[in-house]
Structures are given as C-alpha cells and as structure tokens.
From TrEMBL:
Residues 1-31 form the signal peptide. This is Transmembrane protein 106C. Residues 28-109 form the Transmembrane protein 106 N-terminal domain. It is found in: Endomembrane system. It holds the Pfam family TMEM106_N. Its main location: membrane. The chain crosses the membrane at residues 110-131. Residues 132-272 form the Transmembrane protein 106 C-terminal domain. Belongs to the TMEM106 family. InterPro entries: TMEM106, TMEM106_C, TMEM106_N. Keywords: Membrane, Signal, Transmembrane, Transmembrane helix. Residues 270-301 are annotated as: Disordered.
Amino acid sequence: MSAYHRRARAASCRICEVLFLLAVFMGSWQSLQSSSLSPKCLAEDENDFLDSRDREEDIAKFPYVEFTGRDSITCPTCQGSGYIPTEQVNELVALIPYHDQRLKPRRTKFYVLVSVLLCLLASGLVVFFLFPHSVVVEDSGIKVVRVWFDRKNSLVILTITATLRIRNSNFYSVAVTSLTSQVQYMNSVVGTHQMNNVTTIQPLSDKLVNFTVKSKMGGPSFYAYFFCTLSRIRVHNIVIFMRTSVKISYFGHVTQSSLETHHYVDCGANSTTASGPEPTPTTPEDIALKKSSVGKPVVLQ
C-alpha cells in the first residue's frame, strides 16, 4: 500500500471519530436539555390544576350561580344568596317564557269545579244543620185535678195540673225560658200561672213539661159552687178554657208558641187521668198532688 493511501485512510478514521464524538455530544446535550425542561413543564401543569381547583372551591361557596361558560357570573338580583331581599319584593318583576309549563296548569277546570262543588256542599250542610226548624208544642191533657170547697165564701178551688209535650226538631238544644198559662170559666179568668227557666230540650227529642194552675170559681158566680156541691149529681163536669204560651230560645233568637184548649173537669171530686207515661213532677205542688191525687174534695169551713 502506498503512503498516499495510508494517509487517506488515517484521515478518514479521524473524521469518523470526530463525527462519532460529535454525535455523542449532541445526544447528551439534548438529554440534558430535556431533563432540565421537564420540571418546569410539570410545575406549570400543577399550577394550572391548583388554579382550577381553587376556582371550583370559590364557586362552591355560593349557593346560586349562573353558569354561562367556563367563567361564572353571580346573579345580580340575589347576589348569590339564593333568595330575594324583602325590600325588593315589590320592585322586581319575574319573566317567564311563553311556553313555560307554569303558564299552562293542568286540570284547571276540574279543580275549579271540585272547589265550587265542595263550597256548595259545605254551605248546604251548614244551612241544613243550623237553619232553625220548628219547635212543636202539643197539649197532653190534664193529669190531676184537686178540689177544695170554701163554704164561707162559696168558692170552688181547683188545682189543675196539665202537661205539655214540646218536640225539638233542631240539631241543637233549645231552652224553654218561660211558660204562662191562663184558665177561664164562663169567659172569666179564674186562674193564672207563670214559670221561668223551665227546661232544656236536647236535639231531635221531645220532653213532657208539667205545670199547675190554681183556680177559684164562685163568689158572684154562685152557680158554679151550687153545681159542684150538688149531691144528687154524680159527675160534676164543667168546661174550662186554657190559654198557654211558651217562649223558646236558641242561638239568641226567641220564639213564642201559643196553645188554646178546652177541657172537661169534674169539680165535685178529685180526679187523675193516667194516659201514657206519667211525667216527672217539676214543682212541690206536683209532688204533693201526686201523693194524694184521688179522693174526696176537701171542705173548708
């Protein structure tokens, strides 16, 4: 091999060595650069993550937020509190879209019809239960008649115990505030009687009320005394006229019922009529008459 070829081969080997060293140097430099840039990129990514997390925590502090995109805008009306201030209630107007379901409630006619029917039903029930019904006063006849003769004054004294049946058709109690009775014989008033705070009648029930009237006949009408003491007549029936007035109170309203009846009584002897259940005596006179209701008349000298 010539010297020229040996020198060329050595030069080429050196060039290869230089290129190899240059390649090694460039690779190490790029690796160093990449290693020096990686922490910086990681730091930036970590900062972006923390910023986004802080933003989410700030947003979570507000109960109400309008979201229009990545950034949020707090409601200018409630300032993020979720409710409207009281002083601004009369100043704010709510805007609702035309097609909002709240503007088209379902079954409106049905609810209105049901409400009207319920109101009518409640009104009807109130009127039915509270509207005043009639309180009927009926005559149950004369139960006991006690007779006394006053020969000195030519008087016939009758103690007449009569009974009234009062029927309450209301759904509430009624009070019988007063009872007034008058006995007439031959168009003359011979006895009167008045009772106050008589009784209370329960709803949808009836009650028997006793009252006693003391009557005196004779004096100018000597015919009554002569007829009642005539021994040849076995039964001494006379006709008396009784006018009874009853005042009834309920709900602050007072009504009056009057009853006019004619009765036959035996003025020559004591008598008792037992028809139906006997009413409970309500006065001391009734109790005394119940103990001795039948017998001979008492003659007063």
